[in-house]
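Action item from last week, closing it out:
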Amino acid sequence: MSADPHRHTFSGNRLDRAGGLRGDPAWLAQQMDDPRAAALALWNGQPLLNEAEDGQLAPVWLEGGFARRIAGGDERLVLLGLSETGPVFAVDLEGTADPAEGVLKGLGRFGDLRATLANLAAEDANLIGTARSLFEWRRKHRFCSACGHASRTSDGGWRRICPNCNAQHFPRVDPCVIMLPVQGDRCLLGRQAAWPPGRLSTLAGFVEPGESVEEACAREVREESGLEVTAVRYHSSQPWPFPSNLMIGLIAEVAQGEAVPDLEELEAVRWFTKPEARALLEGRLENISPPAPTAIAHHLIQYWAYDPA
């Protein structure tokens, strides 16, 4: 059960990650050989999915032994955790040839994770997002950053060890602040040029070394809009597997002043009153759209817009 009242897409892990057990090679081998083991498959970051009659999507579950065979060894397998029915793995498939037209023919189709989010159950999105983050980390850290030697997988895919210098490497998570600047009865939204036409959203940016969450929030708001933050309130957080971020959601009170986009991160900014923000979320503003409900940005706006205070 989660202690977080704001359950976002990609959160809500239902598995026991077995962090105290997965470092034991003998125990891990038992999980891989367990006849109840199941695995989901990703190909170049895309999950293998099936579509139900109602349009909902669900991951295709492969028999564990079969997943291990097509993985060709432990390097492309990760233990996601333990469920009530057995161990849960993921297998990473690479290359240009679609496995759904080959070894996985007839089982489902691979779909873009961003495009399919709205039709995935929250617990399925969490498992797929976790696997995607771990596999992206593996691709980018196949060699030891200390000595350059090829590293090897360990702990069911949650650690890499260099056999040359014994350095240990763990999956990285990049913290990002994502905040809704508010000034009295209005909030500020911005627009990046790369977004779909009409899309507006909250401000965001990476936390830099030597910086607290509050300091990162103030710096990013100042850099992107020219406004000074006077107070910061935490709302909630969201794991975001593109490639592996932790979005730290905030409400940022800002001082009076003119909001000016920096034109590097944002091409435009706009103030919204609470009635205007509600109209935006409800699709009643022509040619303007909010962030998708699968993003924490949507929920920050919603929290503020419908707050009676």
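Closing note: Residues 183 and 256 are 7 Å apart (CA to CA).
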